[in-house]
Design goal:
Elements: H1 10-35, H2 37-74, H3 83-108
Length: 109
C-alpha cells in the first residue's frame, strides 16, 4: 500500500491554500466579467456588426460585379462606347420618358 500521509509543513499547506484561493478568485472574476450584461450585450453587438459587415461586403462585391458586366456591354476594352448598343438603349429611354411625360400631361389636362 502507498503511504498517503501528507509530508508538507503547515507553512507549505498555508501557501498552497493561499495560491489556490488566488486562482479561484481570478477564475470567479473572469466568470463575473463573462456573464455581466454589458459583456453579453457587447458580444451580441459585435456578432451583429460582423454579420452586417459580411453581408454588406458580399452585396458590394455582387453590385460591383453587375456594374462591371453592364459596363462591359456598353464600353469596349479601350473605354470607348459601343454605339451599336448605346444608341438603341438611349432611344428606348427617350421613348419611355416621352411616354411618361405625355401620360402625365394628359392626366392634368
Amino acid at each position: 500500500m502507498a503511504d498517503t500521509a501528507d509530508t508538507r509543513t503547515p507553512a507549505q499547506i498555508e501557501a498552497d491554500i493561499r495560491r489556490r484561493r488566488e486562482v479561484l478568485a481570478e477564475t470567479l472574476d473572469e466568470i463575473g466579467v463573462r456573464v455581466h450584461p454589458k459583456t453579453i450585450a457587447g458580444d451580441a453587438k459585435a456578432k451583429v456588426v460582423a454579420h452586417v459587415d459580411h453581408t454588406v461586403g458580399r452585396a458590394y462585391v455582387q453590385v460591383n460585379r453587375v456594374v462591371s458586366e453592364v459596363r462591359a456591354r456598353f464600353v469596349d476594352d479601350e473605354g470607348a462606347p459601343r454605339l451599336e448598343r448605346v444608341v438603341p438603349v438611349a432611344l428606348v429611354v427617350v421613348g419611355v420618358v416621352g411616354l411618361l411625360a405625355l401620360g402625365s400631361r394628359r392626366r392634368r389636362g
